[in-house]
Amino acid sequence: MTEIPREEYILKCTSACAGCGGTLSLRYVLKAAGRDTILVVPACCTSVIQGTYPNTAFNIPVYNVAFASAAACASGMSTALRAAGKKTHVIVYAGDGGTVDIGIQALSGAFERGTDFLYICYDNEAYGNTGMQRSGATPLGARTTTTPAGKTQPKKDLDAIVAAHKPPYMATACPAYPKDLFQKVEKALSYRGPTFIHILSPCPPGWRFSTEKTVEMGKLAVRTGMWVLYEREQGKVTINGPSKAAMVKPLPAEEYLRAQGRFGGISAEAVSRMKDDAAALAQRLQKEEKGIC
Amino acid sequence: MSQRRRLAISRPVTGACGKTGSWRVFSPLIDREKCNACGLCAMYCPEAAISEDLAIDYDFCKGCGICANECPKKAVSMEREDK
Fold first, then answer.
1. CATH number of the domain where residue B69 is located
2. Which has the closest alpha carbon to A89: A132, A159, A27, A39?
3. Using one digit for the tens of pLDDT, what is the confidence trace for A74-120?
4. Which CATH fold topology does A21-290 show?
5. What is the ipTM score, two decimals?
């Protein structure tokens, strides 16, 4: 089993909300990446929680850039570092708004150019930093400040969009499984070329559950099959243990949905559509894992 | 050096966001009798406020309660702070 290093690269303490899933994920991302890392952060919660100038809680170099340019910036940075013969890891740590909505063209461009960097999208399914407005990653039926009656469109399938670029490695993760997340970051950084990790990051104020349930909510998402942990290495899909178990014997999706205030007024049709979508995704991944399609 | 100082570069410091322990409403307390030192609380603490030997840094613990919720032995209790 992989030993997780004790060293922390986030000094006590960030100004993230109590029980933040994004900070918990970042802890393990940085532990896996180590000291020789540059973090590129577009506008998102992570650019706010660092602290106020001239102080920062992050003990590694961080480059804060404009919303739309994270992947383009990291791609250029990595090219320059490789030209200088350095092996420094370049990691983009972007929220779902900065990935699925605003940053998607830079992401697509950088993946097409094939530069060597890791793009991590930590997905709390809304624009958390500005007060929970809907994003392309908000799931069907979720209440946000701009969809007070529940969103009427389903979540954008970002993983399929990224998979279409055929990166050498991509994976999904969740901070409720830190060892799994740690190993995936290590694996992604061992590949040359653009790699991608999509992290579901439970957000207590945005999803409207109490702060102690962050990890529980992450586990529920996986166990109900609403979030699937898998990795795609050179096109070959592997579904990870917790999700494999959930596909054999899933918990009812209602357990995950009822635990969150944002799904308060969700309609029965929306619930059944979400279940169908989750089942279809599980089926597709199982087929891909067996190499059928 | 004087030119370098003009660049807007932040330096890493402990307590860059102040002592976030003041946010806390409930404080976690570890019962050493029940604790079997599995380390899950330290693993899941978003702020790394629980050390290797499971001592909680109350200057920075925000009191989210993940440690109490995830403890398999129910050895962490959340006590209301009297302020």
1. 3.30.70.20
2. A39
3. 999 999 999 999 999 999 999 999 999 999 999 999 999 999 999 99
4. Rossmann fold (3.40.50)
5. 0.90
